Amino acid sequence: MVWDIVTSIASVVSMVAFVLTALFIRADLRAAEKDRYIAATNQLFAIWQSTDFMKDQMWVLHQLAETKWSTFITAHRGEHGEIAFHRVGSFYDRVGTLTRLGLVNEKEILSTIGGYAIGVWQKIEPIVREARSSEHSNLFDDYEKLLPACYESYVPLLGASTKVRPFSLPEPVVPRISPLELHKRLDRGDALYVADVRRVDQIQASPEGVPGAHHLPPDELAVRLSEILPSQEIVAYCDWPDEASSARVALILLQNGHTATALEGGLDAWISAALPTEPVVLVSADR
What's the pTM value of the predicted model, to 2 decimals? Predict the structure, then answer.
């Protein structure tokens, strides 16, 4: 009888000890998980808030002009542009990986960086997609998978289909002229100064351009303005369908009192319309 009581008490004590041990281990694991989460998020925020990272991120958001991988690597291979592209994209890809593995809480970190992740992706997406088909098939995969959570954090009531452009600069309004209209005006003899603003290597690779065009690289614009008559209207074109370079040049000219437009669709649109072309003569400012 006494032995049964002792056995029962021992069983109760053993059970209590087991429960307390389990609770202690659980608390210890939670503390370790919290420490791991804090360490991971602190490291991510330290990188994200660093001056070097922010400079690279601002370059991607506000200075990256290319929309194709081929033109991007031609312009930036081995230089700061390629470094910034991979540094910023890889950071958000790592955040995506850590989120996928459950090592960071996406709701906590994306409330701060989610908007920037959306803005950067909108700038680099076409470049990334082309790069995947030629050099790196899974480039920034986890970054892309993170985007729905970014939208949920940044615009929770709007959803991922909403067209938002966080942290982007207002698009300057630059007038466009269609290839057919430009061709008509050239045939008519209007006083136009047609500027081919492609880089030297781009013209060397594809020398054909709009007949009578003058080679006017953007970095020579300041020292070449004197050769343009005040009465001349300037039409700038490049080889990007979104007129990235030519619109920038036209905007600078407009801000300096000139009448300027960009060729809608760029040189590709001119060629696609089966309009005449001729080789563009390369001219340097130090000629």
Answer: 0.51
